[in-house]
Every structure is written in structure tokens, then in C-alpha cells.
Amino acid sequence: MTISTYDFEENEITAMCITGEYLWIAYQGSGGNSILHKKNVRNPNTTYYEITVPVDKIVRMKADSTYIYLAVEDDTYFAYRYKLTNPLTVYTAITIPSGVTEYPVDIAVDSSSYFYLLNPGTASGEYATIYKYSGSGLIDTIELSESGKIINNASSMAVDDDDNLWVVTYEDPTKLVKVYDDSGYTYEYWNLYHNH
């Protein structure tokens, strides 16, 4: 087995994503700007693009066959979407929806190229919330709160082969939440207890 090491001069790495032969790396920003590199997956010293993203921090990245999606921490922006083949000129900045007080902690993309941003529900009076987007903007808000089923402190999200969303929390006990669209979003959850 061969192990290769690479030294990067940039600041702390905050997120990564692989798309085919490319490695996308986000670096901690300064002065309201973060850096996104598109690199060769076999030789990360080769950088194809360096993109300055005008946000405080890129926290997560996901991709489909056309775009790379960034969940960000910033006072103005919620997310960015970049065209994989031409990210320097083809991109969309998504502003924070009105009334939202938390930063997203994760992002997911389904088979129809809808993308979802997860807010954790850690601020006072907030619940974990999923924001569903298409290329034209916000199309749905899914608050994970029903009578007796309140979800707080969400930490990550994934999409399964049927485009159901799965959310896990930092709660004690940890909750695993399945969100599915049955002509209006429904969710169910399980408490995950640790054996001691």
C-alpha cells in the first residue's frame, strides 16, 4: 500500500466533496471570504479552479452530475450552487430565508436535483427544519415539529434511493428521523440508545 501526503498552505479545511476525477476542498475563510478549490483527485497539488466564495464558512458540500452545492455560515447567504464544468461564471447565491435565525448544518441532493438544507433547531424556540430548493429557489419548508414529535439539535442529513430524507440528531437519546413526501411531508423517528 502506498500512502501519499500533501501539504496545503491554505487555512483549515472545512468541507470536501469528490465528483468523478475531481476533489473539491473548502477552506476556512477570513474577512468574509472562503476559498473553494477544484483539484485533481489523484494529485491534489494540481488545482483547476480557485473560487472566492463571499461567506464566512463553507460547512458542507454535496454534488449531483451537474452542480456542486455548498451549505454555508454567513449573515447574508444560506447556500451556493456552482456548475461543475464552469464554476467561475455559472453559479447561484441563495440568500437566507426571511425569519431564519440559524445556519444550516448539512445539505443533501435527491435524484431530481432538488437540494435540501438542514437547520439544527438548537436556538431557543427553534425546531430542526429542512428547506427544499429547486434551481429557481425555495419551494418548501419542512419543520420537524408535531405534537409529541419535536426534533431539536439535528446534525446531519442524507437521501436514500427513494428520495426519502434521513436526519440524525445530537439529542440524548439520539434520534434517527425519516422524512418522506406523501403529498405533504410526514416524518417518523426512532430513539437510538447506546449500550453501556
Could you list some keywords that capture this structure?
Thrombin, subunit H; 2 domains; 18 strands; four-stranded antiparallel β-sheet; 196 residues; globular; mainly beta
Q: Helix and strand string, N-terminal first?
A: EEEEEEEEEEEEEEEEEE
What is the total tally of β strands?
18
The coarse silhouette is: globular
Count of structural domains: 2
Q: Count of helices?
A: 0
Largest beta sheet, briefly? Answer: 4 strands, antiparallel
Helix proportion: under 10%
Which CATH architecture of the largest domain is right?
Beta Barrel
Description:
This protein has 196 residues and is mainly β. 0% of the residues lie in helices and 56% in strands. The protein folds into 2 domains: 1-96; 100-196, Thrombin, subunit H (Beta Barrel). The N and C termini lie far apart (36 Å). The strands form 5 sheets. The chain has a 4-stranded antiparallel beta sheet, with no helix packed on it. Strands 5-6-7-8 form a 4-stranded antiparallel beta sheet, with no helix packed on it. The protein is built from no helices and 18 strands.
Write the layout of secondary structure elements.
Elements: E1 13-19, E2 22-30, E3 33-40, E4 47-53, E5 57-63, E6 67-73, E7 77-83, E8 91-95, E9 106-109, E10 115-119, E11 129-134, E12 137-143, E13 145-146, E14 149-150, E15 154-159, E16 165-169, E17 174-181, E18 185-192
Antiparallel strand pairs: 1-2, 2-3, 3-4, 5-6, 6-7, 7-8, 9-10, 10-11, 11-12, 13-14, 15-16, 16-17, 17-18
